[in-house]
Amino acid sequence: MIAIDWGTSSARAYRLDPAGAIRESRETGSGILHVPPMTFAAALRALVGDWIDAGERRVLLSGMVGSRQGWREVAYRPCPAGIDDLRAGLETVPFEPGVTVRIVPGLSAADEAGIPEVMRGEEVQVFGALAGRREGLLCLPGSHSKWVRVRDGRICGFTTGLTGEAYAALRGHTILGRMMEGEPVPGEAFDAGVRRAQDAGGLLHHLFGTRALGLFGRLSPAEGASYLSGLLIGHDVRENLPPGGGTVDLIGAGPLMTLYARAIAARGGAARSGDADAAARGLALIGEGLAWA
Amino acid sequence: MIAIDWGTSSARAYRLDPAGAIRESRETGSGILHVPPMTFAAALRALVGDWIDAGERRVLLSGMVGSRQGWREVAYRPCPAGIDDLRAGLETVPFEPGVTVRIVPGLSAADEAGIPEVMRGEEVQVFGALAGRREGLLCLPGSHSKWVRVRDGRICGFTTGLTGEAYAALRGHTILGRMMEGEPVPGEAFDAGVRRAQDAGGLLHHLFGTRALGLFGRLSPAEGASYLSGLLIGHDVRENLPPGGGTVDLIGAGPLMTLYARAIAARGGAARSGDADAAARGLALIGEGLAWA
């Protein structure tokens, strides 16, 4: 089977053996934003044509490829939702004779106030990361960080924060950025930002405090980005980690994983490091129980 | 006397009569960022030379003109601080023979966590707006919004939020801006943002919700900016208005005053509209009791 996590800016393809193990994988910059409408079949061939020619007949896609801007808009499935619900929401798109291409639906939910939440692709990573476990709190750090709650084998709800995008906008386009050099690193300045996020006053006040600390020489340009990152990730963790802590499964890769793990630990939680190929494992689980045409 | 509120991007000059009433006023774009170092005396002459030639001998300056980037760095006075403390911290800068030019110091404070706070210029506006009253909660909306607490005639503390600058960065440089047209206006979308700010979940989550509401067609492009503004101002008010409400004196001018008044009312408070010339009245009060050279 071929499994592809096809997102906005990139696509990651896996060739899986019948047991679901990864035989081969590749990543390209052909995210859906780079694929003109009506040319997704050609993009798929460009991405994994050699695997198809080698005999693969089943292709499962997840992520933004199922959005309005993707190959076909596949309706969100409402939470709570398990793997069976994802299977039930699959849609087949036309491709070459003898090859079946299916897109996994995203999930929708609402928070306590009835404000909608959506995800596309993360739901597959969550089931892949759980690897059969039926309970958990998972976090996918990023531009739009997601905290996902799983009970009895189903995603019962999730919460998204604009954490990463807010960091980039504040760093790049406010007075705060002018007092910062370099990228965030795990260390004392990051920890100070995380601690600050626990104080009263709210994020907007804490942000200005970053500036004030700089003015008074208590935050150096080399420390600024780490402090700001700690502040934002600290707020994200503060709102989403349960009061007593608990264990969080982190999904993803890169420096953000270390930073989130550090912030979660500072709040009394424990972070379990993520499987970078969770999408492949999730797609394998969905494909496993499926009656292919 | 000549009173000048000399800020970063503009300067507002007033000619006051002996009783402190405004005889004349003018505003220029000659904020301190536009005045090269060592040329402040020339900038002052360009701004109010005719008034000096007409016989004015006393000039009182407040605002960023007293910062490191201004005419002279005047040390912050610590809170609590009254008008007498501002007088005690005045510094005289050299100008033309027979004319005395003095700069009012800014104020510093610390919040509960010991993080520093600073203001330059707002302290003068606060005393001007109070017009002799000895108690109050005042709010100066803007890029860096300030909430100032006055007890027994002294500024006992204040809190700054990056509210306006965060709005501009999020509006201009995140995915949220792409779903918005026009400027914030007082109305139902703004109110919905203010209400949303009272919910659990935190600002980062509420920001993402703006996007989700747009995706589901529950927030139109025409409503987006108002909702985002309501969200940020709502968070600012939530953190700074005492539980029970109370009266807030707003200082400033322009559309932000209406929006803040509306958000304060939605939280059970009452807003009193500001005196746009509060700086002139504050400088008059400081000048009044002063022994001029």
UniProtKB/TrEMBL annotation, chains A, B:
Domain of life of the source: Bacteria
Gene3D superfamilies linked to this entry: 2-keto-3-deoxy-galactonokinase, C-terminal domain, 2-keto-3-deoxy-galactonokinase, substrate binding domain
GO terms assigned for molecular function: 2-dehydro-3-deoxygalactonokinase activity
Keyword Thylakoid carried by entry: no
InterPro entries the UniProt entry points to: DGOK, DGOK_C, DGOK_N
Nuclease is among the record's keywords: no
Pfam family, one: DGOK
Keywords: Kinase, Transferase
Coiled-coil region: none
BP GO annotations: D-galactonate catabolic process
Protein name according to UniProt: 2-keto-3-deoxy-galactonokinase
Organism of derivation: Methylobacterium nodulans (strain LMG 21967 / CNCM I-2342 / ORS 2060)
Lineage, top ranks: Bacteria, Pseudomonadati, Pseudomonadota, Alphaproteobacteria, Hyphomicrobiales
